[in-house]
Write a structure and sequence with these properties.
Layout lengths: L6 H13 L13 H14 L3 H4 L2 H13 L31 H13 L9 H11 L9 E2 L5 E2 L4 H13 L12 H10 L17 H9 L1
Antiparallel strand pairs: 1-2
Helix pairs in contact: 1-2, 2-5, 5-7, 7-9
Length: 216
């Protein structure tokens, strides 16, 4: 008997994640709600179940929640719990950063939900993205105290940056842009002797990183 995809079971699982509580194993990932939301919405969309299994009002609510995670200086937070609101100051803003992965997941989720992205702070987001680029061409995860680039910097964040730039049409209309040439040189330096791509120069090639580098 050939294996088959149990589509109804997958749909039930992802609808449970979308409409009720997540399994308790996800409790520690509360700050990564944008990531979990993207994978849930994406799965339902791939299963052709997102629109049939949700109402217009529900999808509007998901869009509104994503926009509540938008950072005033560009980009998106991973969840609303980091929003300091009117108490935000130059001294404490480092505790309320936008995140490059969350920003990609937010924009992709909005697209899945059929939003026209007119609510996105496009210029602010692209300027923020440019500030995240490091000298070696890679991108950090967030801006910390004093605008210092923090978090990891590898092929995955390059993929996120390239996707964000493409979705927001970076470089169009005289908009400040990332240094694509510098990022491409990082990709070239990260290709290994066996032909795959690694997390950086002199590292081991990895299938996921091949996707990130090729897509980026």
């Amino acid at each position: 008997m050939s294996p088959t995809l149990n589509k109804p079971a997958h749909i039930r699982y992802h609808l449970r994640c979308l409409k009720t509580f997540l399994p308790n194993a996800y409790t520690s990932n509360d700050s990564q709600r944008m990531t979990l939301a993207f994978f849930t919405l994406c799965a339902l969309d791939l299963l052709d179940a997102l629109v049939p299994s949700t109402t217009d009002s529900e999808r509007t609510g998901y869009i509104e929640w994503i926009y509540r995670c938008q950072h005033p200086d560009g980009g998106f937070r991973g969840f609303t719990g980091g929003d300091i609101g009117h108490k935000r100051t130059k001294e404490n803003e480092c505790w309320d950063p936008a995140n490059i992965a969350a920003t990609y997941f937010a924009l992709a989720s909005l697209a899945i939900l059929g939003d026209d992205l007119t609510g996105v702070k496009r210029s602010e987001c692209l300027m923020w993205l440019k500030r995240l680029q490091l000298q070696d061409g890679t991108f950090g995860e967030a801006l910390g105290f004093g605008g210092e680039v923090q978090g990891g910097s590898d092929m995955r964040f390059c993929y996120c940056a390239a996707a964000i730039r493409w979705i927001l049409d970076g470089g169009a209309g005289g908009q400040e842009d990332i240094d694509g040439g510098r990022m491409m040189r990082f990709f070239e330096a990260s290709q290994t002797y066996e032909g795959g791509f690694a997390n950086g120069p002199f590292h081991e090639a990895h299938g996921t990183l091949n996707f990130a580098s090729a897509a980026g």
